Amino acid sequence: MVEQLALWERDAFLAINAAHTPYWDAFMYLISSRWPWIAVAFGLVIFLFVKKPLRESILLVLMIALLITVADQLSSGLIKPYFERLRPSYHPLTADLVQSVYGYKAWGYGFISGHATNFMALAMFTALAFRNRWYTVVVFVLALTTAYSRIYLGVHFITDVVPGACVGLLLGYLVYLLYRWLRVKLYNVHPSESQSRLCASTIGYLTSFLCVFILFLFAFAGELMGVMKGQAGW
């Protein structure tokens, strides 16, 4: 039964990994890369300090930093070394079948996906903290697309990504509970008072910023596709 499940997962993984086009190769490579998200992180910090009490901003940034640290260390520092599951590019069942993008194969072990853990944790925490419908939709679209990109790029199995996403959602919820408790204890804020009442305009700006970031990825993916085609002599 276990072997049959492994074969089913392999087939599902390969079906996703095989659905390549030059444009989506570029897009998935970009959304899975580090540098675009560093820019988003700077933007997030800036927007969190706009038109809202300094003490609220500091606590929120500290909680986000704690969340990312815990999520990253749990996934990459504890779970991956414990299970030692090979990534698809190195796994005997898939090593010869994986289609990589631009030669990218990642390194280290695969279970669980750090990208899925971190992004879903951040999406859950901020969605609960801000309580804004449009922000929630946008941030979860970004998180889910990033998680999906790890399968598309061939660096994670589906069963690396889904558990990682679940762990991230749980961590995001738990850190949010801690954050809400600290707001009550430190600032005497009523538990039902969300950040959306303190910084409604800021959340709107932040949502717009994330939408612009998505548009940037779509536009720059076309440029990257052209560059890679030129280098490959297509």
From TrEMBL:
Database matches in SUPFAM superfamilies: Acid phosphatase/Vanadium-dependent haloperoxidase
Which keywords, in A-to-Z order, does the entry hold?
Answer: Membrane, Transmembrane, Transmembrane helix
Residue ranges of every copy of the Phosphatidic acid phosphatase type 2/haloperoxidase domain listed in the record: 60-180
The UniProt transmembrane annotation reads 27-50, 57-79, 106-130, 137-155, 161-182, 203-221
Q: List the Pfam families.
A: PAP2
The record ties this protein, via Gene3D superfamilies, to: Phosphatidic acid phosphatase type 2/haloperoxidase (1.20.144.10)
Task: List the protein's name.
Answer: Phosphoesterase PA-phosphatase related protein
Q: What is the lineage of its organism?
A: Bacteria, Pseudomonadati, Bacteroidota, Bacteroidia, Bacteroidales
